[in-house]
Design a protein that fits this description.
The protein is of the alpha+beta class and 558 residues long. The protein has a domain at 325-557: Distorted Sandwich (Beta-galactosidase, Chain A, domain 5). Helix content is 37%, strand content 24%. The chain has 16 helices and 21 strands. The protein has helices at residues 2-11, 16-32, 35-44, 63-70, 97-105, 108-114, 118-132, 142-160, 165-183, 192-208, 213-230, 242-263, 268-283, 302-312, 382-386, 471-474; strands at 73-76, 79-82, 320-321, 326-331, 334-339, 359-363, 366-370, 394-396, 404-405, 409-410, 417-422, 429-435, 443-451, 457-466, 478-485, 490-495, 498-502, 508-515, 517-528, 531-543, 549-557. Strands 3, 4, 5, 6, 7, 8, 15, 19 and 20 form a 9-stranded antiparallel β-sheet that branches. Strands 11-12-13-14-21-18-17-16 form an 8-stranded antiparallel β-sheet, with no helix packed on it. A hairpin with a 2-residue loop joins β4 (326-331) and β5 (334-339). α12 (242-263) packs antiparallel against α13. The longest helix is centred in the middle third of the chain and has 22 residues, at 242-263. The protein is globular, with a radius of gyration of 25 Å.
């Protein structure tokens, strides 16, 4: 019964059109796998070997990764396997679904080009064509198909140099076949960044293939409609994940470059969206150049983030993203990024974590307070790392503030989340957020963060308010405030109200609990997919009384 109720709480947010498209995709998979599709395709398919190459390389590949791939070694999402080159094992028995998708993206073409390994690239793509030139339910899933088409149309001209005519014809036929398939199978059931990837690929294909202008028109019209939905007025992406913020920004930068190449004209809308999204990305970037770990985010190479920001034209970070729900408090040596926004879009919160009112803090350029991150999408630790206790925020009665389950599902969730910021122009920087993720318990959580004007102290106040009719049943319910420490930070518990942190460079930071009982526990930190590091966390315990609960704490730089 509990599982049924959880499912119902999840389904109440799913729009009817998404259910329709999910059922349709299940039916269509059967059709594409049947002889009927193959016969119809052979009867109607004509192949034009002439291809215009619209792709523009804004971010080049990695030479080292290219040499590894040329040698038959593939590493994606923290998993590495030696598959040979060729024959290639396209479905490794131990690889995760995400890893397999990465293999079929064929974005490794960028790395092979950087390593000047054209023969290896031709061998790999040729082997893929032998196995998957016709429909396959995994290899032709719309998401990897979209990324593969973009990779082919960016690096295909280089790939086909010195290739024989049979290879060129097989490549052109498979390119056209996948383009037509994708146009009929965009991911309307999922939406989000997946749908943007689909439309991006259609734009590329419409520009590349003679007589396929309708693909371009479908891609552009769909893209423009979705951008109105997915890019918020403050420049944030509506999935509210710094990682996917970077992905969508790169997609827009590349689409803008492709349109400039094709028409010679600038697109003012894309210029504005790129600049706005760049500003939002800079807002959730920490001093080490990497991203804060909210909502399935992961660390990316600092230079990669810097390159995206340069290309976007974004000049600086914002103090607050009022619609996305992020605040950036920066004074002296200290920087705090605070998440006081919705967990993501109701129709597809697949990358959401139960992290409302969590924060990350850096001192003197080094991360100090962090969130747990994301190890993998198909890993047993998936929902533990999505849970409230894996984030630097407050947990009530051992329960998550958003009901994360499955791999990408969310049932009950915060509906009313607010953020206010003051002190933008100097002096103390103050951010206050409030959410009702525990409304079913009659509880609201308010967190106030105050960063001193010189950055020497961060003061926090967590207030748990209880509606009167819930007070008796919640008396002595445990409230736990979690503060996860970066692995480079060591901690020594001095008393139940005080701890001493030592940063990597030797700087000391005092952590005091003015209300509540402090302890130190083990924790884990997953800054990237496939990477898990041990770390420590400070926890502050308190109980709910007749007046609710209040926890006060502060970090002071020695």
């Amino acid at each position: 019964m509990d599982n049924l109720m959880r499912l119902l709480r999840t389904l109440r947010y799913v729009p009817p059109h998404a259910l329709y498209w999910r059922v349709r995709s299940m039916v269509m998979r059967r059709y594409y796998s049947s002889p009927l599709y193959g016969a119809r395709r052979l009867a109607t398919e004509t192949v034009n070997p002439e291809i215009a190459w619209p792709g523009v390389v804004l971010v080049g590949g990695d030479v080292g990764a290219g040499r590894a791939v040329a040698g038959g070694s593939f590493c994606f999402a923290g998993e590495a396997y030696v598959l040979g080159q060729p024959p290639l094992e396209w479905f490794h028995g131990k690889a995760s679904a995400l890893w397999t998708f990465h293999l079929h993206y064929q974005e490794w073409l960028a790395d092979l080009k950087a390593a000047k390994a054209r023969k290896a690239a031709q061998a790999l793509v040729g082997d893929w064509l032998l196995n998957f030139a016709s429909y396959h339910p995994v290899a032709w899933h719309p998401y990897p198909t979209s990324l593969r088409l973009v990779a082919w149309l960016t690096y295909g001209q280089w790939l086909l140099e010195e290739a024989d005519e049979d290879f060129k014809e097989a490549f052109a036929a498979a390119l056209q076949r996948q383009a037509v398939y994708l146009a009929a199978n965009c991911e309307w059931d999922l939406g989000g960044n997946h749908l943007l990837k689909n439309f991006k690929a259609l734009v590329y294909c419409g520009l590349a293939l003679d007589g396929q202008r309708t693909l371009f028109e479908k891609g552009m019209s769909g893209l423009l409609r979705q951008l109105k939905v997915q890019v918020l007025s403050d420049g944030g992406h509506f999935e509210r994940s710094p990682l996917y913020q970077a992905q969508v920004l790169r997609d827009l930068l590349e689409i803008r470059a492709v349109l400039r190449k094709a028409t010679g004209d600038d697109n003012r809308l894309l210029d504005k969206l790129c600049a706005d999204m760049g500003t939002a990305l800079a807002t959730v970037r920490l001093p080490d150049g990497g991203l804060a770990l909210f909502n399935d985010s992961a660390q990316l190479e600092p230079e990669y983030i810097a390159q995206l920001l340069r290309l976007s034209g974004a000049e600086e970070a914002a103090a607050v993203l009022p619609v996305s729900g992020y605040a950036r408090l920066e004074r002296g040596l200290s920087l705090v990024v605070f998440d006081a926004g919705l967990i993501g879009p109701d129709e597809n919160p697949g990358h959401a974590h139960a992290d409302t009112l969590s924060f990350e803090m850096a001192i003197d350029g080094a991360r100090v307070i962090v969130n747990g991150g994301t190890y993998g999408y198909q890993h047993r630790q998936r929902n533990k790392l999505r849970g409230t206790a894996a984030h630097s925020t407050v947990e009530v009665d051992g329960e998550d503030s958003a009901e994360v389950w499955g791999v990408f599902r969310v049932g009950r969730r915060p509906r009313r989340v607010s953020l206010s910021v003051s002190g933008v122009d100097g002096g103390e920087a103050v951010a206050q957020g409030k959410h009702d993720g525990y409304a079913h318990k009659g509880i609201t959580h308010t967190r106030k963060l105050v960063l001193a004007g010189d950055g020497s102290r961060l003061r926090g106040e967590d207030v748990i308010e209880v509606r009167p009719r819930f007070v008796r049943r919640l008396l002595r319910t445990r409230v736990t405030a979690h503060f996860h420490l970066h692995p480079d930070v060591t901690v020594r518990l001095i008393s139940e109200q005080e701890a001493e942190l030592t940063l990597a460079g030797g700087r000391k930071v005092k952590f005091k609990a003015d209300k509540g009982r402090m302890d130190v526990k083990e924790s884990m930190y997953a800054p990237q997919l496939g990477v898990m590091l041990p770390c420590r966390q400070i926890v502050i315990y308190a109980g709910i009384g007749a007046q609710g609960c209040q926890i006060e704490w502060q970090l002071m730089i020695a």
